[in-house]
Amino acid sequence: MRSSAVASGVLALTLLVLVAVGWPPLLSFDRSVAEALHRSALAHPGFTEVNRVLTDWVWDPWTMRALAAAAAVVLWWRRERRAALWVAGTSLLAVGSQQALKALVGRERPHWAEPVDSARYAAFPSGHAMTATVTCGLLLWVLALHWRDEWRGWGTLAGAAVVSVLGVGWTRVYLGVHWPSDVLEGWLLGWCWVVVAVLTYRWSERRGAVRPSPGDDGGAGSGGSRMGEGR
User: Fold this and answer.
1) Cα–Cα dist 23/54, whole Å
2) Of 149, 153, 158, 165, which has the maximum CB count within 10 A?
3) Cα separation of 190 and 164, whole Å?
4) CA–CA separation, 104 vs 158, rounded Å?
5) Can you tell me the mean pLDDT for 217-231?
6) 23-82 pLDDT, tens digit each
7) What does the DSSP 8-state code read for residue 69?
8) Is the model more confident about 180 or about 224?
9) pLDDT tens-digit series, residues 73-123
10) Whether 169 contacts 187, CB under 8 Å
11) Residue ranges of the alpha helices (H) in the chain?
12) Once rounded to an integer, what is the mean pLDDT over residues 129-139?
């Protein structure tokens, strides 16, 4: 997984630099895709409204954060407190890095004579895309450690997660509130955060395993260590 973290991080950094310096081929691509989708949104108001419902309610960042918070609460209740802290902490750090980048780059959103939707704050990266990637990735990680081998619904949930991550990116560009590269950056950064969270969690479990608490007879470990049993 280290290679995945490095690859997504390098690609995210490269895209950040290209956007910051205003690389003409990238800006031209962003503009051409955004204009084509905006024409479609104006021509198909019914489909546009479906996209608005999906982006504002189903895949909204606050919906995703509520799912992450619920997962953290369940893990805490199951006495898997290390995992609960990892889910909550990663979600918060991802939000912080997202807002910091928005302020740093200060990229303007697309402007249209006939807008079909609106959004606040800077464009880069897409908060919807990044939050969905982080939340869906963390939830799949938690579920995989517990139920992947015995639960037949795993494939359905994994498919729903992929559709959500890709779908929310589509809605943001289709509704004309983001450039394609904003969404791509959100996906890359979100995935990087997920992989880093998984790797650091595994490292913390290995460290805990070689430094048992006083009086440990080699039996069951702390509540948080149970997250590693599925590996």
Assistant:
1) 32
2) 165
3) 13
4) 34
5) 43
6) 999 999 999 999 999 999 999 999 999 999 999 999 999 999 999 999 999 999 999 999
7) H
8) 180
9) 999 999 999 999 999 999 999 999 999 999 999 999 999 999 999 998 999
10) yes
11) 2-21, 24-43, 45-53, 61-77, 81-105, 127-147, 154-174, 180-210
12) 98
Tallying the residues shown for the chain, one arrives at: 231
Q: Is 225 exposed, middle or buried (0-12, 13-18, 19+ CB in 10 A)?
A: middle
CA atoms within 13 A on the CB side of 205: 21
Dig out the tokens for 152 from the structure: 């037949």
What amino acid is encoded at 105 in this protein? V
Taking the CA atoms of 86, 89, 92 and 95 in sequence, report the sign of the dihedral they define.
negative
Read off the amino acid at residue 119: A
**Rounded Cα gap, residues 21 and 159, in angstroms:** 36
Query: Nearest-CA neighbor of 197 among 92, 78, 67, 76?
Result: 92
**DSSP summary character for residue 216:** -
Which token pair is 26? Answer: 């990238």
